[in-house]
Amino acid sequence: MARRSRGLPVPLLDGFDASGRSGDGASLLARLHARLRKAILDGALMPGGALPASRRLAEDAGLSRNTVEAVYDQLEAEGFIERRHGSGSFVSVDLPERELAPAYAPRAGSARPATTGLSKRGELMAQPYGGEGPLAGRAFLPSVPALDLFPRQLWARLLARAARAPGPDHLGAGDRAGFRPLREAIAAYVGSTRAVACQPDQVVVLTSSQQAIDLACRLLTDPGDTVWHEEPGYRAAAAAFVASGAQVVPVPVDGEGIDVAAGIRLAPDARLVYVSPSHQFPTGVAMSLSRRLQLLAWAARTGAFIIEDDYDSEFRYVGRPLAALQGLDEAGRVVYVGTFNKLMFPGLRLAYLVAPPELAERFVAARVLMDGHTSTLPQAALADFIGEGHLGTHLRHMRTVYEERRQALVDAVAGLAGRLTLGPTDGGMHACAYLPAGADDVAIAAAARRLGIELRPLSTSFRGPARPGFIMGFAAARPAEIRGAVDRLARLLEN
Questions:
Q1: 174, 376 Cβ separation under 8 angstroms
Q2: Which domain covers residue 213, as residue numbers?
Q3: Which of 260, 308, 397, 402 could form a disulfide with 294 if both were Cys (CB 3.0 to 4.6 A apart)?
């Protein structure tokens, strides 16, 4: 038989389980509080009505009196009940929330579309672009580092050291542009490894490349402006441009990178260009010097800006590392974007942009409107990680590891001649693999996932007519896992 409180006018405790088990994991205190609060808002417990004594309700509900007292105290603090010394507990007479309750309790089947009431920009921002879900530890997830090889104990020590630092520097509101020692370390790092010409005041520390791309687009374009985007290209960047109200123009990529002449023909008045010149995503090609100079000359002549996404160019396996496009820019048209989330681990959430000198303060001011500043403790740890040489050591180790894994992928796919062909593999953390014309890469990727293989369909990186294939990350998978996954993929392709 259901329990009923002798002090309540309704069977409020019907179905209440005081054993501590709950399907939603809520505590006894939270569940009883929710019961009473809902009864008050629904009118089942009328304003001014008396509530049972805490001892009686505890007996009837099978709870401790302390639990009931805690619930009553919380309801009193929230204004739902009044507790009068010597008289008992009563439902508050003045309940303004009661009139609002129906608005928060729609009837079953009456839910409205999720986009109801959004602004035009909100509608654009809420459009799904097909981004990847939670990361799984299996081949061939692109842009995922070898997390098991990251020096976790060293990182933990650096974090602990930052937390123990005397004074409020790491605990108070941080520098809006980013922790100054980290910005100095980044400026020195990109100057020596990527030939980026910058001062620490040009560096803005952010959480991700995506945030940097979004910030640059907001600052440098108005709704309706035209943006060149590589075709095929990075979908998340295109989604950010669309969300800002820009008109995205796909510009084809060939063996020398983005076709600047084609871009000029398609949209000569473009306001912004997005490129990944050192390791184009997803094809892996590097932009030739002639194309780089052509793009910079056009941007200087027209006043357009260029976002250079340098997301994984630290990993180069053939020839010398390629210098950044930004280092060739004499007109201040390039916004350089880099990230540590791919170099170290995705959960770090630390990236940066290098703004043109005359725009650095503007970028900082706009960044403050987004979320104030980036958490200082991990910035302090990262500054030490770079300054003490640990980043350089880690990257050298990863370069050796990733080159072995890249070669394992190249050798394994070589046995699939005619069914799967790799594009350039000179650098980066992934390779682009092409299927024969007419193949359905989306369907094959879905079938591969059921076999424990993660493949990103290449066709989804096109905005126009697509070429089928896959984006195959090799950095996170061991050589044996790569070979086994390719063997399973080969059997799948045979069918």
A1: yes
A2: 150-389
A3: 260
